[in-house]
Design a protein that fits this description.
The complex is a heterotrimer of chains A (319), B (293) and C (379).
Chain A lengths: L1 H20 L3 H26 L7 H17 L5 H23 L4 H21 L1 H4 L5 E2 L5 E2 L2 E2 L3 H24 L1 H11 L1 H6 L4 H27 L1 E2 L6 H14 L4 H18 L6 H15 L4 H21 L1
Antiparallel strand pairs in A: 1-4, 2-3
Chain B lengths: L1 H33 L6 H17 L5 H24 L7 H23 L15 E3 L2 E3 L1 H23 L1 H11 L1 H6 L4 H27 L6 H14 L6 H21 L4 H15 L14
Antiparallel strand pairs in B: 1-2
Helix pairs in contact in B: 1-5, 1-6, 1-8, 1-9, 1-10, 2-3, 2-4, 2-8, 2-9, 3-8, 5-6, 5-8, 6-8, 9-10, 10-11
Chain C lengths: L1 H21 L4 E7 L6 H20 L8 E7 L4 H13 L5 E3 L4 H14 L3 E3 L14 E3 L4 H14 L4 E7 L2 H14 L5 E8 L7 H9 L4 E5 L4 H11 L6 E3 L6 H7 L7 E5 L14 H15 L5 H18 L5 H9 L4 E2 L4 E2 L14 E7 L2 E4 L2
The chains are: A mainly alpha (319), B mainly alpha (293), C alpha/beta (379).
Chain lengths: 319, 293, 379
Amino acid sequence: MKRDLLLFTAFSLFIMVAPQIFAGGYLMNVLVFVGINTMLAIALNLLLGYAGQISLGHAGFFGLGAYLSGILTTTYSLNPWLAMPIAACVVGSLAYLIGLPVLKLKGHYLAMATLGLGIIIYIVFNETVDLTGGPSGLSGIPNLHVAGITFDSDVKNYYLIWGVTLAVMLFSLNLAGSRVGRALRAVHDSEVAAQVLGVDARGLKVQIFALSAIISSLAGSLYAHTMTFISPASFGFNFSIELLTMVVIGGLGSIYGSFLGAALLTLLPEILRGANDYDIIIYGALLMVMVMFMPGGLVRGVPALFRKVFSRKAEGGHA
Amino acid sequence: MQFDQILQYTLSGLSTGAIYALIGIGFSIIYNATGIINFAQGEFVMLGGLLTLSCLDLLKLPLWAAIPCAVAVSTVVGILFERLAIRPLRHPTPINLVIITIGGSILIRGLAMLVWGKDTHTIPAFSGDAPIAIGGATILPQHIWILAITLIIIMVNKVYFYHTISGKAMRACSYNRRAAGLVGIDVKRMVLFSFIISSAMGSIAGIIVAPLTMTAYDVGVMLGLKGFCAAIIGGMSSGISTVIGGLILGVLESLGAGLISSGYKDAIAFIILLLILFIRPQGLFGKADSERV
Amino acid sequence: MKVKVLSYVAAIITILFSTSVFAAAPIKIGALFAVTGPAAFLGEPERNSAKMVIDEINKAGGVKGRKLELVAYDTTGDATKAVQLATKLIKDDKVVAIIGPSTTGETMAVIPVAEKEQIPLISCSAGSKITDPVKKWVFKTAQNDALAVGKIYEYLQKTKQTTVSILTVSDGFGASGREQLKSQAARYGITIVSDDTYGPKDTDMTAQLTKIRGSHSQAIICWGTNPGPAVVAKNARQLGIKTPLFMSHGVSSKKFIELAGEAAEGVRLPSGKVLVCDVLPNSESQKKSLMLFVKDYQKHYKSEGDHFGGHAWDAVMLLKNAIEHGADTPAAIRDQLEKTKNFCGIGGTFTYSPQDHAGLGKDAFVLVEIKNKDWVIVK
């Protein structure tokens, strides 16, 4: 437990001083998005890595949070700090209600159902033009501000977003180590066995689904207030897939893994930018290679690789 | 007039549905033999159309020769995909398989973008495009081709799965892979076969639909999803239920667009899908067998 | 021998270095185009054209002795990426102006960045709301879709057709067109009797068209970009619909005729003059620019230059003019852009003013009809 706390403190410190190390104009902006994506990856990881339930529709919850915040603060000129929890509550309850029937399904049926859900939400964003602005998007969403500070620059947003992300991380780490976390893992391994041992598997799955949706919605609200513009294209099927990829590449069931996955997938396009039209190929190939050679994700694969390299070196030394 | 409209909606829906069905069967065949949901299935549809285009334009082949060439090349891609991506996988958990097929589909799409560019292309209809009147509705000769070819493929499938040794072996794999292995069936070979069949079927679907809907490097995504829906409605069967699933989906989409709202057309299809999943997760026609844990 | 070679090499290197030191630093121009993704049909010709013009300007010695440097990024049509890349262009690449993005959605997302960082943005997308209301730092070169709608409605009014059905694609382009179609209808005494949409990836529109056939309108207006409208044209032919079919300027390229084949015959659409440049009268002030652009594009990319590429061509040329007038800082370029008068570009004749950052009049469009696989101007 002490080691966990130490690791988290070290990580937080790293995040807090990172801007000083990489103080680049544009990089700051990318790091803000790393923060938002980390939050989303953690949300999905709670569901997928801990409870073992796949979702291909999480971009939908992310979008709902963004749109609810956006609409409440523009059309109804509500205070953003008030709009955010309202959005989270609405999305959470919605997810709970939908989760009741959806999470009865398993495996690819669950994948298909959540995928369908994501697409339906996306279509609603597109078609309710009077409310959401339709495909042309919703603009003029206000920045967040508190005590005279308006979060309108990348550096300010960085600290805002990462503050929330770290809180989400801490909460998730605690959750994973708690009774609930152990019950979740039991459900993951065998739902029947967990139920026999007195775990309310179904209730737990629905609750974690709702929690995951709430975190996604929160990330969505923050996204809307930092971007000040949202359009449906950001919340489509492709983004759901990207989130899934972050979680898997980072490492299922690992909170820090989610950070690694989100950081890699957010920074990758920046690195591949020089590759012009080839980046989509490299992206696809990388995805396949990762699953083939590092199925445990970066968080497990990289240390294993290190051990392998070093043990080989040691052997070489003996010979 | 109203009757004419309904007839037209239904006929349009049936022809779109036939395509969904062909793609859906491709999904089911692989799923039954391997337990994999092949997210790259839609890309074979794209390859079929674009390869035919290349055979026609670059190799100057006549249409009847271009089609088998295109199918053959897509099948080779299917074999390569199975050999290079699926077989070497050391930890074939369902999630890993989902990701690797998604990775494969992105890769194939990217390569296609390099080869054929980003433009939309079209190939000529098989036998002209003079409309044929049926009642108050009209269809094109190509629609008849689509329905006929779908029908032929289903019949060939039926014969293969029930009257040949390798087809029976594949069915055995779908019931219980380990047991199939124990009685001496080469399961790995069956997996390869399933990829060959489904990539060939996907590309045929792509070819027969291209004269109507045109084709581009990115057509596979949406068609793949719809095919997946058809397979789910049909209970992941590789036979007639998936075909009916596809046709139902097509007709409902078309009726939804015409009678309710064209903007929500896809949403209607997916809502129906969700309802089916909630009420009858084994598919519309499946027997309520125990869930696969 | 070796020494001799070495000394030559050294000499060449010194020459190279000295020229690069003495020549003034190049002026950096940023560009955001959707080169991949669903809007690639816009982004690719735009990037190609921008590259082509800038190369040519540099070959001719640059602007006032200074070379131009294009820093172009691919937004993939995603608004989030467009915003990130705009920040990158401004903060890392330190560009003096930005051309693009390609779509209205991306442009709306980038506008707050440009306004805050005070960098002139010349958008290549058509949405009217980009420059309405006028934003200090934002200009555009693509013709407003309001003008395109006006062109069609004018013709309908002249030919006394009063009921129309509209069928628009559900993306930014279609949504913006639909808005204009609905808001301008009353002014021309036109009633919209049926209003349908289709998805950008849809492959069959017979359902919508069957419904439209039932509505007995006098004209059908379809608003979308390839390949959707080609499917609409084919489906309309299949259903035997004889009602005149109008399209948007979004399909005014040879590609549409190729895709729709026979079904394209008789389709009418408003188009930039670039399509019909070879049949324009010589008195037309734009003709010189148009012919130059089409010829150049053909030479560089072996395909026909379309008006999407033209938007980027116009944007670069407008910037070049501003820099020629002595502007090399973002603020000075903005001020010079606003003073642009009667610039004959590809999209039309531009005249910007503090009240108008779109700069084009209705004469930017001509109504064309497809006859025998070619364009004919409708009188």
